[in-house]
Amino acid sequence: MMKYLSAASVLLNVIAFANAASIYDEIEHNEDVNRKFSLDLQSVVELTTDIKFRAPNDVNHYYFVVPRDLEYNQISIQGTVAGNADPLKITKLVNPEARLLKRFTDQNASDAVFFDIELPKGAFQAFTIKELYKRRKQPFPSTIKIQDEQMLLFTDSKYYLSVYPTKSQKLQFAYEASNTVFYTPDTTAEKKSKLLRYGPFKDIAKFSFEQVMVHYKYPGPLPIFTEVKKTIEISHWGNILVDEYYDLFNEAAGINGEFGRVDYQHWNPNVAPYAIKSLETGLDRYIRGLYYWDYIGNISTSNAHRDLEKVKFRIEPRFPIFGQWKTDWSQGYSTPTRYHLFQEAQQNSRYIFNYTFIQDFNEFLAENYTIKVILPEGATNIKFHSAFSVDQIETGLHFSTLDYIGRPSITIKKDNVHKLLHNEAFQVTYDFQNAGIFIEPIYVIAFFFVCFLTAILYGRINLSLDEKKKQ
Amino acid sequence: MDKRKGKKNQVNASQVQESKPESNANASDEVLAEPQEKQNEAQSQENTSNVFVSLKLYAPVFKIVILALISILAFAVRIFSVIRFESVIHEFDPWFNFRTTKYLTQEGLYQFWNWFDSESWYPLGRVIGGTIFPGIMVTSASIKWFADFLSFPVDIRNVCVFLAPVFAGLTSISTYFFTKECTNRPEAGLFSALFISIVPSYISRSVAGSYDNEGVAIWALITTFWLWVKAVNTGSIFWSVMCTLSYFYMVAAWGGYSFIINIIPIFVLGTIFINKFSMKIYVAYSVFYVVGTVMAMLIPFVGFNAIKSSEHLASHLVYAIMNIYVIIDYIRRNLAQEQFAILTRLAFGIATAAFGMIFVLITVSGATRWSGRSLTLLDPTYAKKYIPIIASVSEHQPTSWSSYFFDLQYLMIFIPVGFYYCLNHKVTYGKLFVGIYGVLSTYFSCVMIRLMLVIAPAACVLAAIGLSEILRKMSKSIRAALTETKSLSEQFNELEDEDVSQKKPSQKGQDQKKGPAKKKRVPFEVAAVVMAFFVYFLSSYVYHSTYMAAEAYSSPSIILASRRNDGSRVIIDDFREAYYWLKMNTAKDAKILSWWDYGYQITGMGNRTVLVDNNTWNNTHIATVGRTMGSEEEEAYKLARYLDANYVLVIFGGVSYYSGDDISKFLWMIRIGAGVFPQIKENNYYSNGVYRIDAEASPTMKNCLMYKLCYYRFDEVTTQQGKPTGYDTVRNAEIGHKGFKLKHFREAYTSERWIVRIYEVMPLANMDPKMGPRHTILSSQSSIKKTKSKATIGVEFAAKTFNLENGQTVKAQIWDTAGQERYRAITNTYYRGAVGALLVYDITKSKTFESVERWLQELHQYADAGIVVMLVGNKTDLHKLREVKKEEAAEFAAQKQLAFIETSALVSSNVDLAFDSIIQQIHQVASNRVIVQEQDEQKKSRNQQKDIGKGKGIQLQDNVENDQNQKEGVTKGKKKAQCC
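The joint structure predicted for all components is written out below.
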């Protein structure tokens, strides 16, 4: 295998030599790297890496690597250069050229994922990478008794995993450090109330990896939405129907042994705080007809009330969601069009629908996220706009009450939606003739008209052959 | 909403009262509130008469409007449950019907017909298509399909929830036609329509959400009767066929169709006996019998039962008798009367006796069979004696007197009056039929509470007939008093003629036309009092029925409601809580053991497989479950495992006053269990003949599974102030067995108010803690902590402290890496710094052994040079399946200089030894290295984890940059064993 690979790489080398030969050898080493993990966010872990590197010339590519076993966990990567608002262009190298691998690693580099960061001209050889990870805080022990305290374990590499050698590197963990049970000891380690700090480490060889571990008490749950589906149905009669489906999972520690109803008291907030008892959110004040149900009906434990600013909505699942348990439900409401549907200034028949991208319970990560916008029958030229890229856009037809042609719908899919990244509005624009809203009433009128006509005709026509009955 | 409904009732009530003027207009009797007022305004007799005359013109419109209002009332009075709770399916059987309907709408008719349901009656399963009456499902699905076709999509759940109220509205209309057909009096028809629209016993079966066969069957029943009477009255083949079609729908909808197939032959026989037989009946019955029997056979569940079973026997016999009678009649007509009158009766008697003999013979010899339920009808004590399952259902209990008044209220008073008019007063076919129907249903309703439903239409029709006849008399006198200012005595004598003359055009001779001239009219005052009483009676009936609908019959019974002291309502939603928990948090193929009552709900709401359910077709299976519940824990555990159950679900009301719980039903479980398993003795569960759960309870009771599962840890809670802990609020007693532990069952979930308790049947590993290959190595040591990570990471981690021979303590971190190919890239990272590895292969799979070499190469490639490797052959317990010879492996190990051992994770042989020996080896190698390494480390000023070992022994962890010593490979081979 390796033979073929090297043969291929030689080939590639020859082909690509002319234009790409210069991109590798410029960066000598990382001068100073500062990595900071924020562990106190729910659902996700944020890693901020400040990188200063040294290169003799002006370079425009930096190769950033992430261990392949974290590829699944990584939900986003963003880069910025100080003083420049535009994000850096970061490309994941799905099939890195063999010579690239060969250049940076002595061993088989398939255990690393490469990112190609394009640096703007004249950068100061310094930039910042922000990554979000999911499902990395693991309850340890993984099962506990109901009354026990939950502890989480977080592991990563002590050193900055890089294709370049690093001169100096620091590492920080931001969390409630007073709850620490254990952390990998090190002479440089320093623990403060909200922070655990390592380093600086000097002269780290490329691809250095050494495990570092933080084990700390964490009382709360680790909710994550494995699936969220949002369906929006627009009616030009003035109503927008919003329905959201949630599939909720708690990543927290599972129950060790039995679930004791005696041990778990619903009303006592101090018992099993790692179980999800309820979720709260505020909905727009002007919504109407809120519902929340699941497969077998209304979730009678939940409630909502309208105050001056918001509709405070508290969903309380039928049962507490302990660690490794899950549940699902649907909720929805109607909202007036005037807040979300606008006509384009120049063109009367073109409409802009504007709505929040993220789900209503936006505190937690949504792993698989789908938005379906159903437009009125007869809408054409449908376009979707958002500030960020989405994974998949599909169009289709939807049939509901009195639809004979079908309502055009647009379905947007995106993995790993989180409010740090996607708490923004999206727009759907489309053409729609205003007269189109009368089609459905016409159907109804026509139907009744035909009914009555039939009845009248039936009453007037005598089909009997019997002469007497005719009289 | 309630208020609105109240208004509706009032409106209807007044409309009903109005009904009298209009309907009486036909019979030219006028009365009642509104006309009276108008009359007062008019102040003149002529005007009054004009009003009556003009009202008469509007009679048909009135009739339709009133009937429409009655149907709307019938619908509205049944949706209390939706308003009070929600649009949800109720109780037990409706959940099954709902589930099958959903399946039908999703999969289509053919799939439905062939549906083998593996979610119920595990492991037997159930052929749904052949064991149900599909009428209600097909009806709902058709409605949905039709609505979808019109592009008016509806939720199938809402179709199911509102089906019964809609059919109740239709029933009112059918009842109107039925009564009108029988009596030829529209006012009686309207009364009966009103009565049936709100008769409580029918409401109880047809409230919104009560999605059961009876909901549509009563409509089909009455429609069949109406069309039957119509067919008999007209002698038309068309109406006979219509009647048969309706009968076919009834057969498809409900097992109660056997009521029709018996009552119609009885009616035919009756007409023969009282010499009222006519060719019209001959036509009607011939069509009905032939076509009806053939059509009934189209329903798979009925099939050849339509010919073979005893329920249908009467129809065959009567068909034969009828034909013989007609033949004889034909012969008689062609012969001298005197001779053949005798001959006919003789032959007829002989034939009847012969058929009777055949009937008895067939029944006794068992050529045809009565079903258990039918036998219970014929012999009310039968079920109690022989079929405890039927007897255990509360709705199969004999009816008590109070429930007659509860369900029929004042109708009870008028039923005898109705009987009088039906059977003794100008008998027509229709009235005779109603009379027979009334008599039979009265009998059946006495036998089973459930059949109160059958008497309800009869009661409504009979009461309506009785009432309308009385009212006719009273209203006649009142109308006379209003139209004439003459004295009462004058009215008595003079107004008769006018009355008769008025009547003549509108009446068709059914009424007492000839009589009234000679009869004396009721005095006005008496009539007024009687009228007032009827007004009171009607409003009282309406009030009572509405009250019953709202309070007694609208609880969905899966959602309970109670009131707090301050009057606010609390929803108790424990059933759905627990069922949803089952759906979300148990394995998809989990099998639930519970008493059969909850089977339909668990499959319907929890989507899980059940062992037994409400379709009680397999007595042995149910008895086994009953026996499990009644056995001691050890025995019950064996049974539960034998039944392959994963969870046991019990209903317990001791905390929240829910009286219909499993402890209350427990005796039936015992009885049913004892019916099949003689080792169960009902008496063992009594103490001195009393069934109790307190300290006096019998030891068998205290130790049986049901008792333990219900009362597990119940003694730790206080349920009522001033009572000791563990006080059962349903049975008002403190439990007698406290502080026990469960050995083989584990509380998996208990709902908030303890109503549903779910227990996990522990895997066998619980009996032998060192079981389960995957667990072995990690969990055979109790002190090991194990963390499970996502498969994508492909690594599991555990820390474990070992004691070495020299007394030192070593804390080892064990990384359990995945053996599967796709994890190779990841696992490479974990090799770094590993000091020891166990390469595990499966002795029953030579492939795993073959790949050992590859793993070994990889280890040497990525791991430290000094790594200690041990080859482990696992699963020696399966030596019969051995594929890798021990010698072969030993030779390979020697060649590669590996330590070698064979273990069995299952029986835990050699596992500890494997671990200990590798730790020893690693320790030797590592302690040599540490000295060298520590020097290095000092240079690097890296000080690592001194706090872990506290210097007691050498930290295997403190060498190598990786700071854990990874003993990997443990799972490597293991996973491989799984994947290859």
